[in-house]
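tRNA-guanine(15) transglycosylase
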Amino acid sequence: MRDVFEVGAQDGLARIGELDVPRAGVTVETPTLMPVVNPNLVTVEPARFESEFGAELLITNSYIINNDDDLREQALDEGLHEMLGFDGAIMTDSGSFQLAEYGEIDTDTEAILEFQRDIGSDIGTPVDIPTPPDAEREQAEDELATTQDRLELAETVDVGDMLVNAPVQGSTFPDLRERAGEHAYGTDLDLFPVGAVVPLMNQYRYDDMTEAVLGAKRGLGRDAPVHLFGAGHPMMFALAAALGCDLFDSAAYAIYARDDRYLTVSGTKHLDDLHYLPCDCPVCAAHSPDDLKQADDDTRERLLAEHNLHVSFGEIRRVKQAIKSGNLMELVAARAHAHPTTLDGYRALLDHSDQLEASDSASKGAFFYTGAESARRPEVLRHHQRLDRLDVDGDDVLLTEGDSNHRYDESWNVLPPFGPYPSALATTYPLTAETPERMDRAGYEAAAEGVRRLAAANPDTEFTLAHDGWPETALATVPERVDLYNSATGE
């Protein structure tokens, strides 16, 4: 792997990065969105991507270009940038998508990489095998081995200063994804797309997508730039960034527009169902739904595609700001609760809080408790782990949600979902958390787990928990040797 990616701000696995693309002579800030350009069917002129939408990188398909005589001749004669009219960086796919769709393509890794080099691609892609979800393990292993052979072949191809992708396959087997990540990271290739997840996203299986990506991330180094192939819907950009993905590509902006579909950060709407346009982009500010419905087909398609691009790039900027501010998980939670399947993805992410915690900053802005899932965030896990290392002074200690009591040797505060902590830490992150007055059961249960861990770490200390009417499910976690006092009832 060449040294082309520098990580800046981080929030969990998400990060702001700088991707150096030497052939284009540009540095791309990530997370970033790459509009997909079909050279046979251009909905929005690529020259507008950078000036109007902020695109720094786009993606097109070298296999399509190579198999069309006119496009091939034009690309070889003019170069890809001139042909598409785009000054930023250009990534090219190899035909693997066509391979997944049709089962066979008439090119190979060496030939397609040389063609991508010759037409001036800045980031090229070998021909990997995109194993579909739910394949038999034997098939997934065999096809992964073929992909790995092709990555090793790609290392030997003279590509000049073109960067090269090293796709990470493995179907829906997280351990194979991890193995694939380790192998890809060990090559001299540059970017690491997680492939064959489009069917999962099309089926709204965001939990399985999450497991696949996190498996790949466990195999890749922290400095590996990760591309989530086919992640083009703005409703899942926050989740994808939280998984540690840096590049996304969107054909959805154009494909959906052809079917009169209107993208939002909470899902997709059909134009026929809209009485108002719930967006303030230039298209929506200047038009009503009736305006779009009454426009000719080409104009309506173009305007919807422009809206879809505006809302997509707007969400990318929102994700970046959340990473910088350290509150990406709050944005993920907000997006997740807009649809049951994105909530599945968020919950699957929290199943791996230990993986998130390893790269999460120990200090950032306020922690906002936004629902039961917040009780499983890495900040809560980290606090529980650190309880083992905090000193308890005294033989008789009060753990209280209310005021301290001088009858005890020492008093610790208690804050759901974190649980107990010394008062000296009250002004430190994440114990400055904003929590609701009406805490849910999950928050109390997480706090009780903190009490359990503190008691286990201090077996010779007597503890009293003064709680404000915790539910029985939480109190059941508290060890029997901890005295309980319900301050709400005085019992």
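thats it. The chain is about 40% helix and 15% strand. The first strand starts at residue 5 and ends at 11. bye
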